[in-house]
Each structure stands twice: as structure tokens, then as C-alpha cells.
């Protein structure tokens, strides 16, 4: 009797990664789970040395599970992916934090000085 050996970890990862790459070989874009946002696709490092299709904007895909991303034939709707894939200069900086107005002028209130030996409020 011969015993069939189970594929090693590297071979299993290679098979999963190859199947994912094949799913995007026709130029499909990428959608994460049930999100309505469609991303451009780039090859990203997955586990070990394996490469997997991932969003060009590098948005977090929880755990990089191979089932989290799905091919989508729709146009790219992710603003960051669009900025990364366009050949024209970006006309608008994508913000990381809310914009706040710069502080101008002097503070309206001076800090209080405490005099040694005096009680405050008394």
C-alpha cells in the first residue's frame, strides 16, 4: 500500500495564491466583501513569498484572507486607487485628518500667575 502525502504548507499557499491571481487575470478590479467600493488591483505580498491580488490603495483587508476579496468588472470607484492610477497630476490632496483652521493672533486669555504665600479664592 502506498500512502498519499498531503501537500506541504508552501504548496498549499502557492495553490491558493495562483488561483487568486488567475481570478484577476482578465483585468478585473477588486471588491472587498460586500463593500460597494471597487478598487484597482496590484499584486501584494501575502504569506511567505506568495503574491496575491490586493487593492492598489492598500486599504486594510482583515487578515488578507483569500475569500475577502472578489473580482469585480465594474469601474474603479475608490478615490485613493483613482489617484494612484491616473497619469494626470493630482489636483487635490487626500486628507488623513479633518482640516482645522490655523490659529492666528495672540491668545485671548493670559495664564494666571500664582503669587507665593497667597491663597487662591480666599
User: What strand line-up does the widest sheet have?
Assistant: 2-1-5
Q: H/E element string? A: HEEEEEH
What proportion strand?
15-25%
Q: Fraction of residues in helices?
A: 10-25%
Number of strands: 5
Q: Any idea what the shape is?
A: elongated
Write a compact overview of the structure shown.
With 122 residues, this protein is of the alpha+beta class.
Q: Could you explain the architecture of this structure?
A:
The chain is of the alpha+beta class. The chain contains two helices and five strands. It has helices at residues 9-23, 79-85; strands spanning 29-32, 38-39, 41-45, 51-55, 69-72. The strands form two sheets. A three-stranded antiparallel β-sheet has the order 2-1-5, with no helix packed on it. Strand 3 (41-45) and strand 4 form a beta hairpin. The chain is elongated and about 80 Å long. It starts with 8 loop residues before the first helix and ends in a 37-residue tail after the last helix.
What's the topology here?
Layout: H1 9-23, E1 29-32, E2 38-39, E3 41-45, E4 51-55, E5 69-72, H2 79-85
Antiparallel strand pairs: 1-2, 1-5, 3-4
What attributes characterize this protein structure?
two-stranded antiparallel sheet, alpha+beta, single chain, 5 strands, 2 helices
Amino acid at each position: 500500500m502506498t500512502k498519499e502525502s498531503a501537500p506541504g504548507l508552501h504548496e498549499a499557499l502557492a495553490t491558493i495564491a495562483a488561483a487568486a491571481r488567475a481570478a484577476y487575470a482578465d483585468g478585473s478590479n477588486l471588491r472587498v466583501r460586500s463593500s460597494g467600493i471597487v478598487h484597482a488591483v496590484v499584486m501584494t505580498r501575502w504569506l511567505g513569498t506568495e503574491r496575491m491580488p490586493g487593492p492598489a490603495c492598500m486599504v486594510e483587508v482583515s487578515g488578507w484572507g483569500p475569500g475577502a476579496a472578489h473580482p469585480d468588472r465594474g469601474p474603479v470607484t475608490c478615490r485613493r486607487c483613482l489617484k494612484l492610477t491616473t497619469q494626470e497630476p493630482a489636483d487635490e490632496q487626500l486628507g488623513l485628518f479633518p482640516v482645522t483652521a490655523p490659529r492666528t493672533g495672540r491668545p485671548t486669555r493670559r495664564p494666571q500667575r500664582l503669587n507665593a504665600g497667597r491663597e487662591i479664592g480666599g
